[in-house]
Design goal:
20 strands; 12 helices; five-stranded antiparallel sheet; alpha/beta; single chain
Amino acid sequence: MNLVKKLTLIICLCHPLPGYGQVQLMLPSDSALTHASLSVYVADVNTGEPVLYYDPDRSLTPASILKLVTSATALELLGPDHTFATEFGYTGKIRHGKLDGDIIIKGGGDPAFASPYFPQFYTDFPDKWISAVRHSGIKRVTGRVVTDDSWFDYLPVPSKWLWEDAGNYYGAGVYGASVYDNTYEIHFRTFSDSAKPQITGIIPDECRFNLVNGLVSYGNTDQGYIFAAPYSSDGWITGSIPENNADFVLDASIPDPPLVLSKIIDKNLRSAGIRLREKPTTARLLGPSWRTDYQMTSFSSITSPALSDIIEVLNHESVNLYAETFLKELGKEFAGTGSTDAGINVVRGFLDSIGIAKEGMNIVDGSGLSPMNSVTAWGMTYLLIHMIHSSNFEYYLNSLPEAGKEGTLKNYFHDVAFNSVMRAKSGSMTRVRSYAGYITARSGRKMAFCMIANDFSGPSRHIVSIFEGILKDIILNN
């Protein structure tokens, strides 16, 4: 009997209902599982009765399946039609072609502003904004371009994130004004083994700052990391990137997206012949002395995609930035403070309101990037069952990739048993693998599930094969 069949059989035999007390699973002899923690819960979505489980109350690190908690809370409390707005205008008066005031970009927390995921919403926004300024007759500005980034607090990255994550694209922070998913590209030309790669370009150029290049060319995999703190002007790159490559790209997080946005518009204004007396800046840099209750005359406003559309990208592509933004938006809307901590309190209140015990559900961010998050398989499954009965369920379900076909599940669950019967969110980080979502058995029985493995040894693909075997058995035999 192979490992997957043996593990599935053992779990099914250990099934003392009702009350699902702790079930001691005697794991088969396998070095990958010797020191691992495993939690599984599968339940009928109509009755809530467990179908299969193992140690469902064990509190484990969830990785990105935590996004299911954040997106469910956002859909239920903010609503699927919730949007973000970015305003462009000016303060002061225009007299004889001179603006005695500032050009203002007023951020409204939109995480998708100018994102490549939503090009139709932000087409040529710099050109349109500069055209609006020229049409107003402004030729000179006594002030500067200011991005008002005060919508959220000025702590872009959750305090419990790892230092090695914050400088990379998946560690992009949350700001009152964002641009390009708060990500920029570093282009390299790489050479032979152990040679130092050459930086050939930064896109956009406004993201250029002091980077110490400690990379080497090696092998054919990307092991390069950028270390840079939010709002910093210095950082360094370490690790290795593939050798003999004419144009290899590392995606990094922008240290100060609001300032980059100001610089982009400033550059375009000057290129259009409009003179500005002062350098571009942000509300944060101007400090408390710069009042955010100014009177602004608006040129235009750009509205984001609907929250439900952003959530679809969030869960398909596992975009940490979007999840962390929703967390802060929940805090701003329902606790009066656009902070991570305020958002977490709103999420905890939501979980409590639908009957999910706080014990074992330790939430420190919205995306699951921190290894200090922990959830229970039971709690996650119960949340999924709650959403089945929500008026927002269609949006929620559509946000989950289809097994073997889409998003983060594209390369997994390819067995024909999963065709059109499984939608789920995946989670992964070092020694963590998790899945949570919905399956439909051959009989038509619909189930919600959560499976989490922590601290396993060896390749994660081995753990995925175990999960695939368990779910396949349930689909075929229930």
